[in-house]
């Protein structure tokens, strides 16, 4: 019976040691997992800050482009009457050019008739 009591005590001690060892290893594992999660969240936080900064830069750029576009539109609107005048002048020049071609053709016909009349 003494041997069985000693054996039970040794088994209990072994079980206690093994249990403590298991708890320590599980705690170490969980701490490692938590450290990994903390690193992941830290990296995500940095990425979010960088992304936020980039979006702020893009917002400023878009605002600048928008302002420039408004200025260009205002300048275009102020030049529109002159552009319309240029278009009207172009139409008039084209009509004048057509008239000049017709006049040239008519003068060539007259010259040909005159030369024909001179021969007779």
UniProtKB/TrEMBL annotation:
Biological process per Gene Ontology, one example term: endosomal transport
Q: Name one GO cellular component term.
A: gamma-tubulin complex
Identify a single GO molecular function assigned to this protein.
gamma-tubulin binding
Q: Which InterPro entries match?
A: BLOC1_su2
Question: What is the protein name given in its UniProt record?
Answer: BLOC1S2
**Protein family according to the UniProt entry:** Belongs to the BLOC1S2 family.
Source superkingdom: Eukaryota
Q: Which organism is it from?
A: Bugula neritina (Brown bryozoan)
Any Pfam family from its record, for instance, is: BLOC1_2
């Amino acid at each position: 019976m003494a041997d069985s009591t000693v054996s039970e005590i040794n088994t209990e001690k072994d079980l206690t040691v093994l249990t403590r060892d298991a708890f320590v290893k599980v705690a170490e594992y969980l701490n490692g997992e938590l450290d990994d999660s903390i690193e992941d969240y830290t990296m995500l936080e940095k990425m979010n800050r960088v992304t936020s900064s980039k979006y702020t830069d893009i917002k400023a750029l878009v605002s600048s482009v928008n302002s420039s576009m408004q200025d260009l539109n205002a300048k275009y609107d102020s030049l529109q009457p002159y552009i319309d005048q240029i278009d009207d002048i172009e139409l008039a020049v084209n009509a004048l050019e057509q008239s000049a071609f017709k006049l040239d053709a008519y003068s060539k016909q007259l010259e040909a008739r005159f030369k024909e009349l001179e021969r007779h």
